[in-house]
Amino acid sequence: MTSCDAIVIGGGHNGLTTATVLAKSGRKVMLFEAAEALCASMQTVEIAPGYRTSALSHLVNRLAPEVIRATGLDTACLNRTPAPTVTLGAGEPVVLRGGYGETLDGVSAEEALAFAAFRQKLMAQAAILGRFLTRRPPLPGEITRKDLLPLTTTGLALLRGGRGAARELMRMLLTNVADAADEHLCDDRLRGLMAFDATLGSHMGPRSPGSLLGLYYRLTGSANGIPGAQIVPLGGMGALATAFTAAAERAGVTLRPGTPVARIEAVQGRATGVTLADGTLVQAPVVVSAVHPATTFLQLVDRAEIGTGLTRAFRRHRSRGNVAKLHLALSRVPGFTGVAEADHAGRIVLARSTDHVETAFNPAKYAEFSPDPAMEVVLPSLGQPEMAAEGCTLSALVQFAPYALRGGWAAGKAKLLETILARLEAHAPGLRETIVFADLLPPPEIEARFALPGGHWHHGEMTADQLLFNRPVHAAAGYRTPLDGLWLASAGSHPGGGISGLPGLNAAREILEARP
Amino acid sequence: MKRHDVVLIGGGHNGLVAACYLQRAGLDVLVLEKNAWVGGAATSRDTGTGVTFSNCSYVCSLFRPEIMRDLELPRHGLQVIAYEGGVVFTEDGDYLAAYRDHDAHRREIARFSPRDAEAYETYARDVTRQCRFIQPLLMRTAPDPVSLKPRDIGELLWLARRFGNFTAEEMAATARFWTMSIADFLDEYFETEVLKAYLAISGIIGTALGPMSPGTAYVLLHHYMGEVDGSVGAWGYARGGMGAVTQALASSFRASGGTIRTDAAVEKVLTRGGRATGVVLDSGEEVAARRVVSNADVKRTFLKLVEPADLPEPFLHRVRQFKMRGSSGKLNIALDGMPEFPALPEGCRCTMGDMHFSDSIERLERGYDDWKAGRWSADPFLDMMIPTQLDPTMAPPGQHFMSCFVQYCPPKVEGRDWTDADRDAFAETVVSQIADYSPGFRDRIIGMEVRTPRELEAEVGLTEGNIFQGELTFDQLLFNRPVPGYAQYRSPIPGLYICGSSTHPGGGVMGAPGRNAAREILRDMRLSPKEMRPAHDVL
Amino acid sequence: MIAPRRHPAQDHFRQPLTETPFHPRLAALCETESWYNWAGQKALHSVYDEELEYFAIRSTAAVFDISPMIKYRIRGPGAEAMLNRLTLRDVRKLAPGRVQYTAWCDDAGEVLDDGTLFRPGPQEFRLCSQGRHLPWILDTAEGFDCTVEDESTAIAGLALQGPASFAVLQAAGFSGLETLKTFNIRDLPHEGGQVTISRTGFTGDLGYELFCPAEAALSLWDRLWSAGAPLGLKPIGYNALDRARIEAGFIVPGTDFIATDLALRADRARLPDEIGLDWLVDPAKTQFNGRRAIMAARAKGGPRHVLVGLEVEDNTPAVGAILYHHKKREAGVVSSAIWSPMLKRNIAIASLDAPYGSRITEDLWVEIYALRELRYHKLMKRARIVPRPFLKLRRRTVTPPGLV
Fold first, then answer.
1. pLDDT band at A515 (very low <50, low <70, confident <90, very high)
2. Are residues A218 and A241 in the same domain?
3. Hey, which residues 280-339 in chain C have their CB within 8 Å of chain A?
């Protein structure tokens, strides 16, 4: 039997963040990861001989400066200029540069002004909302002095912008992205882009009330200090994975990849440690689960140790992915029509209009995939010969592709791949002939490959009813859980998914502040 | 020229409620109605079939009992009859019925799932809790959260205290309930598809959303928070049709000395020195008044009746952006006999209530997809009633009035205006759905009135045919309704008020907006609303 | 045209209240026709005379139809662990052949119901309660190796209570029961099948509860009836039973407390400690639903409500009366009250709001509004907290039981 001060289950970036911060404060921390590699969804992988790409996530747009500071993360791989976003609709593309379109190419001067005003409004609103991301969410019934300060400063920030702006935020907060974009913009390509960005990774169409939250969430992120910016890391996402791992090692965390945890041990409602798949018992007064919260409570914890209400809440927890991941190895760099050569290094979004995204969403409601999907495409190897000596890798996130496809993915996968390739071919003529290797991962395969239940990278829908004190579920919100000594630190907890590290950091801070 | 204390534009139920309270407070009130009859969307008219229709709204539950009491509506002929039952027919020839009797209802659900039959108790409890929370908010003016006025702060504190009495679990549950889709909400309780479909309908009636859209669980409350004589959640028919509500209001108004002019369409609101001074009718006649109150929806009021120059641009912008897309239509059908529904056992009383043919959430949602694409639903859902089973005043013996509320039905057909041919094709879609379940149905039809959003706008004046005078999404509720900063029945023009369903607490034949508006007007006039007795306590 | 699909189950609406398996016998004996709705079934307030029925419980023997009780059968290797998660007491300590009075809570520690848990075999249980809990029990059982079956209508139940109840069973040919101790179960043959007899009841008297398949109900009734008539066996309705249960100090959900899953007002929910069920909570056992909340409340300084037995001066039952401290400050409410014929005392069960009932236990008064010929007599009577049960009868527990 082994023991330590804290056990972290799951070696994703959030688990590593928690472990690193705990270790840096002097705790003896052991981290167990089932997969052979840490940060499985952030690896740079070789998909075909000589072709390397990012395994799942392919952009960095919300890595929190607080996390970089607290973990001492080496961010050399992010030392690049932000990548532009190119949105391809009918006709010429629009290119957004800097932090979510600080400057725009390809629209009328009038529309550029309208976009600038809208962008500024959203950025200001996101900045206010962003205040809630870097700490425990306010919990009803448990509002402490610590919560009052941010609540008050947020209130003041809200009023500083003027009464009109405050009212506008309260009106817009739960509105849908389609209406918001329609109100402020005329260009379908920009509206389509916002519709896509707001709904990416969630079971929502742009017309679903509350969908604007998705866009706010994106805009609370920043890269290299630029709000709304995005970076394709040097060496692929794997470089960042390496940095997270190195930070943990430097902090003295005992890292145990390839070591699945079989069970979280508990006695009379208190977690006491874990039992590994090989039967080894490891004891610790603090157990942090940085894997999916539903996995934690429905699989790792003995049901007898938790309440029926809690299992019920996790049964209701919505966490089914809607995005398929496409990897292509191409014998040459594709040329997207109308896109300047340099802009191919950016994020290319195929979303013609709000209606396109909404119509793509419709089938997902009935467990069917979109016949005309929307997608974002990144060419991670561009300008990095070490990732593809010849040719290029292409990485795309395609929606909507529901987790439980009617008729099953065994039959559906080839059809969806064909649909996607046809769309790509339409925008990048000749692309199909250059395909060396293609790999499509519908949500169940994302689930299997990256241990992401439902294939949902946010570890739970980011809809209003699963945010803040209801994230992942009310009884387990704020990182602490009804099983004393067990903490949650995954994207399933506040503030949510994406490569931010904030759930992990917030959880570590709560653990350190908790009375022993 | 005579100068009225108040001139009220539009004789819908909220306008009449406001008019009654203002008149009773000692003011001289004139109601101007463009049609030859008053009632707005709460009317009963025989349009030539020999059968009286509730032409638009068709059931009565939300209408606040406090208003009935204050305005003595029973004395003026209003009678609400509770009804029982309800049924959704399934495509496989079975049905799920609703019964008032608790145990019969439980056994009915247990035919499909014993678990659901018991889960229904918890569901009913949870929804009732939400209704109990919202009910006291209906008869209060929504506080402005960024105002520093003592009254707004007082109201906010009242709200905070109310919310503060909640347990943490209740607060969390309420936050979820207000933001969830009705489909997700029902999934948490039930496994039976037809039961979910039946209950989901209350989350989408009148809205431009599908059952899978977030925010539709809240809409459920707009159909559950009513009552019939203290029986919360119960529904009833107004005897004589929904026109009985507005006729009683009109009678009460006249009895207290008020004047109604019909066939008097208002063309413009007159202003002088930035203040409302009266209205001008389409005949050119000017009517002077110290205060002008509009029962028309927010768009009609501020985009048609008021000179744009009189309004600040940001306000106008918000009014233009206010969402009030019509999503429903209606068929009023006169029948020469009671239609048969062979799926039902003999003697089953569930035909007394609401009848539906949509037996899955997916069918409801697909109906919404059609609407989004600018078409009426190919497989629409119907909320169908035959009130003449309980109300013999509306049809000759043996004949019946069937009210068919139909969703979804867009304000424009694929971007263009409705034509008569569209309307007839729409009606055929509905009739053929009924005929699938009721043999010989077509032969029973002796007359029919078809209402698409076009007709609703033309006759009742509801912009885009939206029955709630504005969609019930969170960005258009409470202090956001209709325009943030103007959610207290006042407008940027001093002396001009709005009192329709575009204002808090929103649509349904509830009367609360009218009453709340009257209270604010009286406050501005420093008059005490002495005939406005307090809202009922929620014990 | 859609073809109708008709089946007999659709006709249930014609008879909203169903009949229990004993209904033919009860209907034949019934003189009052005072039927009421018990869980959707017809039950009697009284059969012929409430007062006399009560004395049958205390003097001879009485049968009460408990078939409308909700009964869940839980079977399987994981049944014990599941029930340990569900209920407050340690099910591991419930030996096969025994019965446990118990209660269960939600995660917030608020009481969902109380009931009796029978353990006929090592992997076999029956849970009896007033309320329906199928979704909660099924969800609790998820992940445990056991099955849950609602056998409420399949199983008929009869309470046989009173000093002569043992004699009635003996005369009816149920042998060997002289060794059956309280809270023990025994299966005895009846009509080729079995009847489960437990020495349990809701009266505080010597008594048994009999469960058998619904088909065997009438023959069981007849067997008891023919043997019991000479011993003074009488059928009774709920009113007589209610008097006996108040004397015995038992609480009833819906009357003395509100089940949390049915409460419209969150402040009506009660922790076990707040309704006198603290003794059921077993902190030493494995984790169970509500443990965390119950323990947290205890650590925070005790219950916010206290359920107590009261003895009220004078003889007017304090039904629904408000309790006052020092005749001034409201202190709680009476939920059940009777004049006890056995004790010749005016007794009541009341819920007090702390500190009344915990720190302050003296100077309590009840305000009784007694309606007498269209005039209310407003009485302020002194109330004294007394231990429950109000009535303790030695014959309830003595083994072998006496014949009268």
1. low
2. no
3. 283, 286-287, 289-292
